[in-house]
């Protein structure tokens, strides 16, 4: 199964340029562009810019994609530097990078949307009206790129609020509140507490598996009795600037 969220994919060689220097995908949308694709953005705190995938059609458009899981082609069990800097292919499975997410969201005013699909292509979503990484931090890496989320709505249930305020943990940098390294134990990387109710960077598991917690998980949706035998979960994470 793969994600079916009304998102139009583009070939990897397609690169679209907006006419002005947008700070994020909401600026791309505001410039009059309406085609989903890869765009260059230039956040206030990173004027050199970088490329992101913009969804300009889902739920009004203007969404900046920060993570995509859809086919298991990319290894997400990686260390701190990979998660800090980002990895993958912008038009396919990827993680944008903690520092890039920080430069985009550090001042707040962003909404987070997470779209999910299971093995049978059942879909759900979760939105958070307040989202940022490393809010107001002077040294975000030293601070662990802490997560801020609040204001849940959606159909998937809330599995992220318990992670708000947590630092990001990878297999080689333990910043959670567990005696163990949650990233190493559950083979992922996330804003773990002790340990998680969501694990969207976990293993992309195929086929039945007895242990839920090391897969791509959103517990309020994946643990319900009708869904607990599903083999994997596809996920997209994206955010939107509420005050462009």
UniProtKB/TrEMBL annotation:
CDD domains on file: FReD
Keyword Glycoprotein: yes
Location relative to the cell: Membrane
Annotated TM spans: none
Domain Fibrinogen C-terminal: 16-221
Molecular functions (GO terms): chitin binding; metal ion binding
Record membrane topology: Single-pass type II membrane protein
InterPro entries noted in UniProt: Fibrinogen-like_C, Fibrinogen_a/b/g_C_1, Fibrinogen_a/b/g_C_dom, Fibrinogen_C-term_domain, Fibrinogen_CS
SMART domains the record matches: FBG
GO CC annotations, alphabetized: extracellular space; membrane
Annotated Pfam families: Fibrinogen_C (PF00147)
Keyword set includes Metal-binding: yes
Quaternary state and interactors: Homotetramer; disulfide-linked.
Name the record gives this protein: Fibrinogen C domain containing 1
Organism phylogeny: Eukaryota, Metazoa, Chordata, Craniata, Vertebrata
